[in-house]
Protein backbone atom coordinates (compact mmCIF):
# COMPACT_ATOMS: atom_id res chain seq x y z
CA UNK A 1 0.00 0.00 0.00
CA UNK A 2 2.85 2.36 0.83
CA UNK A 3 4.33 1.74 -2.60
CA UNK A 4 0.92 2.31 -4.20
CA UNK A 5 0.42 5.66 -2.46
CA UNK A 6 4.02 6.65 -3.29
CA UNK A 7 3.36 5.98 -6.99
CA UNK A 8 0.17 8.07 -6.83
CA UNK A 9 2.05 10.90 -5.13
CA UNK A 10 4.81 10.81 -7.74
CA UNK A 11 2.26 10.77 -10.58
CA UNK A 12 0.45 13.73 -9.02
CA UNK A 13 3.74 15.63 -8.72
CA UNK A 14 4.65 14.93 -12.36
CA UNK A 15 1.21 16.09 -13.57
CA UNK A 16 1.45 19.28 -11.51
CA UNK A 17 4.97 19.98 -12.76
CA UNK A 18 3.73 19.49 -16.31
CA UNK A 19 0.88 21.92 -15.71
CA UNK A 20 3.24 24.43 -14.14
CA UNK A 21 5.54 24.18 -17.11
CA UNK A 22 2.63 24.71 -19.48
CA UNK A 23 1.51 27.75 -17.45
CA UNK A 24 5.01 29.20 -17.70
CA UNK A 25 5.22 28.67 -21.45
CA UNK A 26 5.28 31.87 -23.49
CA UNK A 27 4.96 32.27 -27.22
CA UNK A 28 8.06 33.65 -28.92
CA UNK A 29 6.13 36.85 -29.67
CA UNK A 30 5.19 37.23 -26.00
CA UNK A 31 1.42 37.30 -26.52
CA UNK A 32 0.88 36.57 -22.84
CA UNK A 33 3.19 39.30 -21.56
CA UNK A 34 1.52 42.52 -20.44
CA UNK A 35 3.24 45.68 -21.62
CA UNK A 36 3.07 49.09 -19.91
CA UNK A 37 0.80 50.46 -22.65
CA UNK A 38 -1.17 49.37 -25.71
CA UNK A 39 0.96 47.71 -28.39
CA UNK A 40 0.62 48.56 -32.07
CA UNK A 41 2.38 47.09 -35.10
CA UNK A 42 4.36 48.75 -37.87
CA UNK A 43 4.45 46.71 -41.12
CA UNK A 44 7.81 46.14 -42.82
CA UNK A 45 8.70 44.30 -46.00
CA UNK A 46 12.26 43.02 -46.17
CA UNK A 47 14.14 40.23 -47.94
CA UNK A 48 10.90 38.99 -49.50
CA UNK A 49 9.12 38.76 -46.13
CA UNK A 50 6.24 40.71 -44.61
CA UNK A 51 7.06 41.27 -40.95
CA UNK A 52 5.88 43.61 -38.22
CA UNK A 53 7.55 45.70 -35.54
CA UNK A 54 5.68 46.08 -32.26
CA UNK A 55 5.74 49.45 -30.56
CA UNK A 56 4.05 51.55 -27.91
CA UNK A 57 3.19 55.19 -28.55
CA UNK A 58 2.40 56.78 -25.20
CA UNK A 59 0.98 60.28 -24.90
CA UNK A 60 2.08 62.74 -22.18
CA UNK A 61 0.15 62.48 -18.93
CA UNK A 62 0.78 66.15 -18.14
CA UNK A 63 0.82 69.21 -20.41
CA UNK A 64 2.73 68.27 -23.55
CA UNK A 65 6.12 69.88 -24.02
CA UNK A 66 5.99 69.07 -27.73
CA UNK A 67 8.95 66.69 -27.45
CA UNK A 68 9.35 62.98 -28.08
CA UNK A 69 11.60 60.28 -26.65
CA UNK A 70 12.23 56.87 -28.21
CA UNK A 71 13.51 54.00 -26.05
CA UNK A 72 15.69 51.19 -27.42
CA UNK A 73 15.75 48.00 -25.31
CA UNK A 74 18.65 45.61 -24.68
CA UNK A 75 19.26 42.22 -26.32
CA UNK A 76 17.69 40.15 -23.56
CA UNK A 77 14.65 42.36 -23.14
CA UNK A 78 11.72 44.08 -24.84
CA UNK A 79 9.52 47.08 -24.24
CA UNK A 80 8.00 45.46 -21.14
CA UNK A 81 10.85 46.59 -18.83
CA UNK A 82 10.57 50.32 -19.62
CA UNK A 83 7.41 50.94 -17.54
CA UNK A 84 8.89 53.28 -14.93
CA UNK A 85 10.86 55.24 -17.55
CA UNK A 86 7.73 55.71 -19.68
CA UNK A 87 5.82 56.92 -16.63
CA UNK A 88 8.53 59.39 -15.65
CA UNK A 89 8.92 60.85 -19.16
CA UNK A 90 5.21 61.16 -19.92
CA UNK A 91 4.75 62.86 -16.53
CA UNK A 92 7.02 65.72 -17.65
CA UNK A 93 5.28 66.17 -20.99
CA UNK A 94 7.09 63.79 -23.35
CA UNK A 95 5.49 61.61 -25.97
CA UNK A 96 7.27 58.25 -25.59
CA UNK A 97 7.70 55.70 -28.36
CA UNK A 98 8.93 52.26 -27.39
CA UNK A 99 9.64 49.77 -30.20
CA UNK A 100 10.43 46.10 -29.88
CA UNK A 101 13.16 45.72 -32.45
CA UNK A 102 12.63 43.14 -35.17
CA UNK A 103 13.71 39.80 -33.70
CA UNK A 104 12.76 40.80 -30.15
CA UNK A 105 9.77 41.04 -27.83
CA UNK A 106 6.40 41.05 -29.57
CA UNK A 107 7.91 41.75 -32.99
CA UNK A 108 8.40 39.21 -35.77
CA UNK A 109 11.31 36.75 -35.54
CA UNK A 110 12.37 36.46 -39.19
CA UNK A 111 15.45 34.72 -40.54
CA UNK A 112 17.14 37.71 -42.17
CA UNK A 113 20.48 39.49 -42.14
CA UNK A 114 20.42 41.42 -38.86
CA UNK A 115 22.06 44.81 -39.03
CA UNK A 116 22.19 47.88 -36.76
CA UNK A 117 22.04 50.01 -39.91
CA UNK A 118 18.82 48.30 -40.98
CA UNK A 119 17.30 48.53 -37.50
CA UNK A 120 18.12 52.24 -37.31
CA UNK A 121 16.48 52.77 -40.70
CA UNK A 122 13.32 50.94 -39.63
CA UNK A 123 13.09 53.08 -36.50
CA UNK A 124 13.48 56.25 -38.55
CA UNK A 125 10.70 55.06 -40.85
CA UNK A 126 8.50 54.41 -37.82
CA UNK A 127 9.16 57.92 -36.51
CA UNK A 128 8.49 59.44 -39.93
CA UNK A 129 5.20 57.55 -40.15
CA UNK A 130 4.22 58.83 -36.70
CA UNK A 131 5.05 62.39 -37.70
CA UNK A 132 8.03 62.76 -35.35
CA UNK A 133 10.58 65.22 -36.70
CA UNK A 134 13.13 64.98 -33.89
CA UNK A 135 13.51 62.80 -30.80
CA UNK A 136 15.53 62.14 -27.71
CA UNK A 137 17.04 58.66 -28.12
CA UNK A 138 17.60 56.55 -25.00
CA UNK A 139 19.31 53.21 -25.55
CA UNK A 140 20.08 50.56 -22.94
CA UNK A 141 22.63 47.74 -23.43
CA UNK A 142 22.32 46.54 -27.07
CA UNK A 143 19.91 49.43 -27.49
CA UNK A 144 22.86 51.70 -26.78
CA UNK A 145 24.70 50.30 -29.80
CA UNK A 146 21.57 50.82 -31.88
CA UNK A 147 21.04 54.34 -30.51
CA UNK A 148 24.64 55.21 -31.37
CA UNK A 149 24.19 53.91 -34.92
CA UNK A 150 20.91 55.82 -35.21
CA UNK A 151 22.55 59.07 -34.09
CA UNK A 152 25.45 58.54 -36.51
CA UNK A 153 23.09 57.90 -39.42
CA UNK A 154 20.38 60.42 -38.56
CA UNK A 155 21.86 63.28 -36.51
CA UNK A 156 19.16 65.62 -37.83
CA UNK A 157 16.57 63.34 -36.22
CA UNK A 158 18.40 63.03 -32.87
CA UNK A 159 17.81 65.80 -30.35
CA UNK A 160 19.92 64.12 -27.68
CA UNK A 161 21.61 60.71 -27.31
CA UNK A 162 21.27 59.04 -23.90
CA UNK A 163 23.19 55.81 -23.32
CA UNK A 164 22.33 53.64 -20.32
CA UNK A 165 25.08 51.07 -19.76
CA UNK A 166 25.46 50.47 -23.49
CA UNK A 167 27.30 47.42 -24.71
CA UNK A 168 29.80 47.81 -27.52
CA UNK A 169 32.20 50.01 -25.54
CA UNK A 170 34.82 47.43 -26.50
CA UNK A 171 35.37 45.57 -29.77
CA UNK A 172 34.42 42.07 -28.61
CA UNK A 173 35.90 40.37 -31.65
CA UNK A 174 39.39 41.49 -30.59
CA UNK A 175 39.33 39.33 -27.45
CA UNK A 176 36.27 37.02 -27.49
CA UNK A 177 36.94 33.80 -29.45
CA UNK A 178 34.94 33.58 -32.66
CA UNK A 179 31.94 31.29 -32.84
CA UNK A 180 29.79 31.22 -35.94
CA UNK A 181 26.02 31.66 -35.86
CA UNK A 182 25.38 27.90 -36.08
CA UNK A 183 27.59 27.29 -33.04
CA UNK A 184 25.93 30.10 -31.11
CA UNK A 185 22.54 28.62 -32.00
CA UNK A 186 23.52 25.39 -30.24
CA UNK A 187 24.44 27.43 -27.17
CA UNK A 188 21.12 29.32 -27.26
CA UNK A 189 19.21 26.02 -27.42
CA UNK A 190 20.63 25.11 -24.01
CA UNK A 191 19.05 28.15 -22.34
CA UNK A 192 16.86 27.45 -19.31
CA UNK A 193 15.16 29.65 -16.72
CA UNK A 194 17.87 28.56 -14.30
CA UNK A 195 20.70 29.58 -16.64
CA UNK A 196 18.99 32.91 -17.36
CA UNK A 197 18.69 33.70 -13.66
CA UNK A 198 22.29 32.73 -12.99
CA UNK A 199 23.49 35.01 -15.80
CA UNK A 200 21.31 37.94 -14.68
CA UNK A 201 22.49 37.55 -11.10
CA UNK A 202 26.15 37.34 -12.07
CA UNK A 203 26.28 40.04 -14.74
CA UNK A 204 23.37 42.44 -14.43
CA UNK A 205 22.63 43.15 -10.76
CA UNK A 206 24.73 43.79 -7.69
CA UNK A 207 22.04 42.32 -5.43
CA UNK A 208 19.15 40.09 -6.50
CA UNK A 209 15.63 41.18 -5.55
CA UNK A 210 12.33 39.30 -5.96
CA UNK A 211 11.01 42.03 -8.29
CA UNK A 212 13.55 40.97 -10.92
CA UNK A 213 11.99 37.51 -11.22
CA UNK A 214 9.59 38.63 -13.95
CA UNK A 215 12.56 39.21 -16.23
CA UNK A 216 13.56 35.57 -15.75
CA UNK A 217 9.97 34.39 -16.18
CA UNK A 218 9.83 35.99 -19.62
CA UNK A 219 13.30 34.98 -20.85
CA UNK A 220 12.86 31.49 -19.38
CA UNK A 221 9.21 31.12 -20.39
CA UNK A 222 9.92 31.20 -24.11
CA UNK A 223 12.27 28.22 -23.77
CA UNK A 224 9.20 25.99 -23.20
CA UNK A 225 7.63 27.07 -26.49
CA UNK A 226 7.55 24.63 -29.40
CA UNK A 227 8.81 27.58 -31.48
CA UNK A 228 11.80 28.20 -29.23
CA UNK A 229 14.28 26.98 -31.88
CA UNK A 230 13.27 30.00 -34.01
CA UNK A 231 13.81 32.34 -31.05
CA UNK A 232 17.20 30.69 -30.43
CA UNK A 233 18.22 31.04 -34.08
CA UNK A 234 17.33 34.74 -34.09
CA UNK A 235 19.18 35.21 -30.80
CA UNK A 236 22.24 33.64 -32.42
CA UNK A 237 21.90 35.91 -35.44
CA UNK A 238 21.73 39.03 -33.28
CA UNK A 239 24.71 37.79 -31.25
CA UNK A 240 26.64 37.69 -34.53
CA UNK A 241 25.39 41.19 -35.35
CA UNK A 242 26.79 42.57 -32.09
CA UNK A 243 30.07 40.70 -32.50
CA UNK A 244 30.65 41.74 -36.11
CA UNK A 245 29.28 45.31 -36.15
CA UNK A 246 31.15 47.38 -33.53
CA UNK A 247 30.44 51.07 -32.98
CA UNK A 248 33.41 51.65 -30.67
CA UNK A 249 35.55 53.14 -33.45
CA UNK A 250 32.94 55.75 -34.35
CA UNK A 251 32.13 57.47 -31.05
CA UNK A 252 34.31 60.42 -32.04
CA UNK A 253 32.05 60.97 -35.07
CA UNK A 254 28.94 61.69 -33.01
CA UNK A 255 27.59 65.19 -33.58
CA UNK A 256 24.68 65.26 -31.13
CA UNK A 257 24.59 66.07 -27.39
CA UNK A 258 25.38 62.82 -25.57
CA UNK A 259 25.07 61.67 -21.97
CA UNK A 260 26.20 58.31 -20.59
CA UNK A 261 24.45 56.82 -17.56
CA UNK A 262 26.76 54.18 -16.11
CA UNK A 263 26.24 51.68 -13.31
CA UNK A 264 29.84 51.27 -12.19
CA UNK A 265 29.49 47.65 -11.04
CA UNK A 266 28.44 46.47 -14.49
CA UNK A 267 30.68 43.68 -15.84
CA UNK A 268 28.74 42.77 -18.99
CA UNK A 269 30.70 41.17 -21.83
CA UNK A 270 29.01 39.80 -24.95
CA UNK A 271 30.40 36.27 -25.19
CA UNK A 272 31.53 36.24 -21.56
CA UNK A 273 31.15 32.47 -21.30
CA UNK A 274 33.83 32.03 -23.96
CA UNK A 275 36.45 33.73 -21.79
CA UNK A 276 38.60 32.44 -18.95
CA UNK A 277 38.11 34.01 -15.51
CA UNK A 278 41.37 35.93 -15.98
CA UNK A 279 40.14 37.33 -19.30
CA UNK A 280 36.76 38.21 -17.80
CA UNK A 281 38.53 40.20 -15.09
CA UNK A 282 40.15 42.63 -17.53
CA UNK A 283 37.14 43.30 -19.76
CA UNK A 284 33.60 44.57 -19.22
CA UNK A 285 34.77 46.96 -16.51
CA UNK A 286 32.24 49.76 -16.85
CA UNK A 287 33.79 51.92 -14.14
CA UNK A 288 36.64 52.36 -16.64
CA UNK A 289 34.82 51.92 -19.95
CA UNK A 290 32.27 54.63 -19.16
CA UNK A 291 34.92 57.32 -18.66
CA UNK A 292 36.95 56.13 -21.64
CA UNK A 293 33.90 56.31 -23.90
CA UNK A 294 32.80 59.73 -22.66
CA UNK A 295 36.27 61.03 -23.47
CA UNK A 296 35.88 59.88 -27.10
CA UNK A 297 32.56 61.64 -27.72
CA UNK A 298 32.81 65.39 -28.38
CA UNK A 299 31.22 67.29 -25.50
CA UNK A 300 29.79 64.17 -23.83
CA UNK A 301 28.78 64.08 -20.18
CA UNK A 302 28.79 61.07 -17.90
CA UNK A 303 26.65 60.31 -14.85
CA UNK A 304 27.91 57.37 -12.79
CA UNK A 305 26.04 55.33 -10.20
CA UNK A 306 27.74 53.58 -7.30
CA UNK A 307 26.65 50.08 -6.24
CA UNK A 308 24.71 49.59 -9.48
CA UNK A 309 25.09 47.11 -12.31
CA UNK A 310 23.84 46.82 -15.88
CA UNK A 311 20.28 48.14 -15.56
CA UNK A 312 20.16 51.34 -13.49
CA UNK A 313 16.53 52.06 -14.38
CA UNK A 314 15.54 48.85 -12.56
CA UNK A 315 18.21 48.55 -9.87
CA UNK A 316 18.22 52.17 -8.65
CA UNK A 317 15.05 53.53 -10.28
CA UNK A 318 14.66 56.73 -8.24
CA UNK A 319 18.27 57.81 -8.62
CA UNK A 320 18.29 56.97 -12.33
CA UNK A 321 15.00 58.72 -13.13
CA UNK A 322 16.07 61.87 -11.28
CA UNK A 323 19.30 61.89 -13.29
CA UNK A 324 17.48 61.16 -16.54
CA UNK A 325 14.75 63.78 -16.25
CA UNK A 326 17.26 66.31 -14.94
CA UNK A 327 19.33 65.84 -18.08
CA UNK A 328 16.58 66.63 -20.56
Which descriptors would you attach to this protein?
328 residues; alpha/beta; 8 strands; single chain
Q: How would you portray this structure in words?
A:
The chain is of the alpha/beta class. The protein has an eight-stranded mixed β-sheet with strand order 1-2-4-3-5-6-7-8, sandwiched between helices. It has twelve helices and eight strands. It is globular.
Side-by-side strand order of the widest sheet: 1-2-4-3-5-6-7-8
DSSP strand tally: 8
Quaternary structure: single chain
SSE string, helices as H and strands as E: HEEEHEHEHEHHHHEHHEHH
- The overall pLDDT average reads 93
Q: Judging from the principal axes of the Cα atoms, what is the shape?
A: globular
Radius of gyration from CA coordinates: 20 Å
Estimate the strand proportion.
15-25%
Q: Helicity range of the residues?
A: 40-55%
Q: What structural class do the secondary elements suggest?
A: alpha/beta
Main sheet record: 8 strands, mixed
Flag low-confidence runs. 4-23
End-to-end C-alpha gap: 72 Å
Helices, by number, come to 12
Amino acid sequence: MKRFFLLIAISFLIINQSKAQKTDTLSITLEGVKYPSAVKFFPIHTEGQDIKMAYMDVAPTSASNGKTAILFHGKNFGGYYWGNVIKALTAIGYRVIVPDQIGFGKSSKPFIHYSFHQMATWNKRLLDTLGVQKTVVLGHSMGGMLATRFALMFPEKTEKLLLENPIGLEDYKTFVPYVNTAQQYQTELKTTAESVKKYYQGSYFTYWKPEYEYLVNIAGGVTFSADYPRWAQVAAMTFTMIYEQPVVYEFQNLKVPTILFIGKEDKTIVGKGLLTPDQQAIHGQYRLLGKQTAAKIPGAKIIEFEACGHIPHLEIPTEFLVALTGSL
